[in-house]
Amino acid sequence: PLISIFSCVIIMIFCCSPRTPGTGGTPDLTASIAVPLGEFSPNAAFDLSITVFNEGDADSAESRLSIYLSSDSALDSSDTLLTDRDIPSIPASSSTGNIISQSLSSSGTWYIIAFIDSEETVTEQDETNNQIGTAVTINPDGTKDLQISAIAIDADSLNDGGSCNLSAVISNQGSNTVTETFNISFYMSTDSDFTPAGDTQLVEEEISHDFAEKSSMNLNTVITLPDNIDLNQSAYFYAFLDNTDAVDEVDEDNISDIDDASILLIYDDENSSRTYDLIFETYPPTGTVDDENPDTSLTLYDSYGIYIDGNDDGGTFSADDYSEIIYNSAAAGSTLFILAEGDVEGPYAFSVRTGNIELRYYSYEISVDPYEDDDDHDSNVPDSPVPINIGGFSNRYLDNGDNDWFEITLP
Known about the structure:
411 residues; mainly beta; six-stranded antiparallel β-sheet; Immunoglobulin-like; 3 domains; single chain
């Protein structure tokens, strides 16, 4: 058969609509419809997301939502009814969402049309805006969709001209086997705008591997930084997959997302007077903050335990009440110590980052109260501070009441 409906899940969520209510004291029902991007294989299930809005200024009565399949974008008597759904009363300026799982067996481009109030039981301000459609393409040959993930670098820092191992996972998320040979290139970027034409290409690999549906392979290669890069900061390392478009894919966006990129501290080892701009910061792991309760305070010391800067006295917090210390021009090879003191209910995360890239770096572990012989910390450093690998990616949190020392040694 042309149509097969695998399952249907309806989620009713009322929310305030951002649209402007109509006038006249009557409801006005409209709808939006969305499907995932790309093509689908025959009989492969996909979700229809349909939202029904009441743009009027009165509550609507119960209504009927009908979903049709059409060969064009206009609904007529020759189209096929896929399913009906009862829609409850919707308050004025509110909406309700529906998720419907659907599949189609015949190839080609089809139109799925949502018809709200299909039985015309609701008197509305506008009776001409109750239909909305979207196109769906069914590809009988299946689809191919190469993706890159889990980019990892076997180093915490790297000087110009240096090399290290890089690993990544290449997968085919499509439903057809990828048999073509294609290339993958890895790039270095000093900002989050990944543009291969403007970034530094480090290595290119040719991939000759058959990727069946939902299969993957691990890639291991070596990257080498250019000589004399004259940079002392963190950098992103990302991939550009199938950069010559050898594979016809359902989604050709093959540049790594920022979440899939890796981070490394790079430095110019020929410049003995190099410095680093650092930011020490705590922040709530949820990304929210209570303005009345600044999080843990930070205090920064040099290798002799001499005070440099801090907000342990309750001052110098960042704009969002995060505890923050900005330390510019930290000398190469220097060792710093930072004390994080838990002031309010946690947990809170602690990070060190270079100023150019707004991405946090975490310590691998946290030490608890490693004081030497007193609590003034004016002329000593802790017995066992926890080293921080700048560029490391281990997520650790500070608990309420902890007094935690960290050691940062700059390459």
